[in-house]
Amino acid sequence: MKLDMAIEELHRSENHLVTVLTSMSDKHKADHEVFYVTRDMAKWSREHVADLARIGRDFGLDLDPEASEDPGLLSAMKQRASVLTGRRSAPGLLLLADLRHLYREAAGTSVDWELLAQGAQGAKEQELLDIAERCHPESLRITRWANAHLKVTSPQVLAS
Amino acid sequence: MGRIDRIAEPWGSRTPYGPGETWPTRVDSYLADGLTEDDVDRWVQSATILHSNGDALDIAVKDERIVGVRGREVDRVNHGRLGPKDLFGWQANHSPDRLTKPLIRRKGKLVETDWDTAMDAVAGRAKELLEEQGPSAISFYTTGQLFLEEYYTLGLIAHGGIGTNHVDGNTRLCTATAAAALKETFACDGQPGSYTDIDHADVIALYGHNMAETQTVLWTRVLDRLAGPNPPKVICVDPRETPVARAATVHLAPRPGTNVMLMNALIHEIIENGWIDREYVEAHTVGFAELEKQMKGYTPELAAEVCDVPAEQIREAARILGQAERLLSTVLQGFYQAHQASAAAVSVNNINVIRGMLGKPGCGILQMNGQPTAENTREAGADGDLPAFRNWENDEHIADLARVWNIDPMQIPHYSPPTHIMQQLRYMEEGSIRFLYVTATNPAVSLPELRRIREILAQDRLFLVVQDIFLSETAQLADVVLPAATWGEKTGTFTNVDRTVHISDKAVEPPGEAKADLDILIDFAHRMGLEDKDGAPLVKWSDAEGAFEGWKECSRGRPCDYTGMSYDKLRGGSGIQWPCNDEHPDGTERIYEDGRFWAHPDYCESYGRDMITGAPVEETEYKAMNPTGRAVLKAAEYIGPHELPSQQYPFQLMTGRTLYHFHTRTKTGRAPQLNAAAPEVWVEMAAGDAADRGFTEGDLLRITTPRGRVEARLRVSGIRPGALFLPFHYGYWDTEDGSQPKKKRDGRAANELTLTDWDPVSKQPIFKTAAAAVERISKAKGQVSAAPTTTGSAPVTGSVPPTTGGDAALAEELVTTGDRR
Description:
The complex is a heterodimer. Chain A is 82% helix and 0% strand.
């Protein structure tokens, strides 16, 4: 039985996703939709971290239910920097890079959920399967958003 | 025949009627200077231009001047009635400060010039940028007040000629969510309701829709039903005690930012109690199982806590909605300009769909517009959508459009959704959009976070063209100002909320050298040298009727089919509802009869979006989910608003309208009766909140948010506790400050305070949840605020003299008992 490993790994990657989303949000404060939507999506990952910590106990794991985040000061500095550079066009390229990064991270996490769901079915762990079925679509939605936002943003950044 | 003060009585006299009966006619008219109908030289057909209702009227002309208006008795929309803004607003056409010559910026100042110089400057800069950077440098921002022909021509120039994706209208602020919500549920724009549904409905539910003020004549129709036998029950969702709330059977006043929670609880109750048309859901929808699952947790008790509305009230409202036999639902800015706008508006659709209340008399949805011609911005492709509800993700739709326009499909940008205005501003801010052409709107007052907007528009690196009838706050920032003709001075058509198309004929000449917007746009196209693939001019018409004929071809076979209409057919009688074609030569009153939608993957306008992130749904996903084109039931989870009250900013600020004004008052502020009815900005607060702070009616307050400060006198009104309301109409053109508040001085425009945030689905900015603080600058000393007493701003304390218009506001009313139509 290696489900505990899968849970632990997913806990790590969802945790990481929270950091990627909130850090991206702070860095692009001047891009209002990016700023708010990434924050809203980070709430999903935070809930996933808590869900995984809770179910992890059944598998002998002691995982932190709270996602680790940027300290407030660092977050505020990133936001300030974003506002200060908001009049330049270089952040456009940075945004593309960050979206691409988010896409890959979210896609990886989403695949991990799929693995966990498969494992839960194999082991007939109903509660674990329920969590996977609830969380997997949300990580897919993050992937889709990153992809969609890349499509919207790239023509302007690359063709101007 | 009677004469009544239509400022004091905005809805006029009652003509009660019962369910299924025809609404009696009542012809309203107003002629200036004591003239009578005998003095009028001629009457010219038109419709109203200061709201979205589309009330038909005739313009009275004497000595080549407009002297008044009279409602058209034969028209299906208003049966002769007019609202206060229609009766008095036309006087603004004659203002001495109309723009009469083009202006160009020289040495930092706008100076008069001739058309050739102005247009060469505009086209010259656009060509230069096209050469240097390409179409991504150029953007267009239009309005909800031009005519169909102008929007279609603008869309053709922008999409087909210049090839830019940066096209939007200020309809983004008023009707973007209406369109988005319809695209989510029905995969296509198009209003699934008719105004005659009011004649039949037994329940009318108004969600964030203060119809009494935004569509006065439509509300008159409701009032006449309420005064007649077997009146409908009315449900009102609004944090303010509006005239609608006062007439309601149940009034729910949720906390700002919690609409989705409330809607989810209503749907939860309806499903829980089995008030569902199972057969209809089975035959005509997809997504019900998921909706049922997602709504499980949203109990009235949970919603009661989040929304601060009693659970029993939510249950009662759900019972009325659930047991309605003919349910009409209407939605407006209280939902559209609020947090999770599209999700909340889609939930309204969900209720009608799961109850099978569509496509039958009395059973409809009116996702409303704010502006008179907003519907045409959507249809004709001037809000960025492609013309005639074509789908930018469907290559065959693009190919078909390219055929109509005789251009290469590659020329039409369709690699991503159109760039909405808030994103355009972002591109201007970071410097990649360098040319903005604004037609008939005033972003320097109407967009959120004005200090930011002004900074963006005033940049040297941005070439700003403003085409308008007055030197608005925005025009004052422009590089070139083009003087336009307005309603009554040009011919064209426009379409109201319930798909009724009216013609508006030219009654008089525009002042000075002002020109019709259509003529200016065509001139621009020619100076740009825009051509089709055979080298012929891209814009193939030279007048409004030619543009209309061009549009008809573009609309052929699409949901908004105009091919059965003509200018001749639109003249003389009533307006006509689209689709109007060979099959339906007299138009179509109700769409979506028997569950027949425009949602088939090959035909639909949109595959939808994620309700939280706004990411577009891909074609393959949509095809898998909805292969046969049914209505789509979409659930959305509630998420809290992004800016919450804090100790420093304890209130939630909402901005909105008042009955007597339109948009940024450029017209209504110049009509004496309307201006006098609401001459100055005010702020509303609940009685308990005011008492806690020792504030009373008329105190001068300063309202502060992290973005700015506004000064306004207090009206203690029936608004819910914890919320503030500011009307957004007031800017600076009629103050000594000109285009913006002088440094260090408090502002007057509500948008000094609003935040830059929008619904990710519809991209509509949020105007209903800004955290705000208030302090008192000075006590009233007997003065009262300038807020009208006849409307949502009615006082609940103290003695405030009622709003009246006096002799100047006396208008005729002719009630005809029989149906003379």
